[in-house]
Amino acid sequence: MSYSVGQVAGFAGVTVRTLHHYDDIGLLIPSERSHAGHRRYGDADLDRLQQILFYRELGFPLDEVAALLDDPDTDPRAHLRRQHELLSARIEKLQKMAAAVEQAMEARKMGINLTPEERFEVFGDKDPEQYAEEAEQRWGGTESYAESQRRAATYTKEDWKRIQAEVDDWGERYAALVAAGEQPSSEAAMDLAEEHRQHISRTYFEVPYEMHRCFGEMYVSDERFKAFYDSMRPGLAEHLKEAIAANAARHGA
Question: How far apart are CA 193 and CA 165, in angstroms?
Answer without folding.
Answer: 17
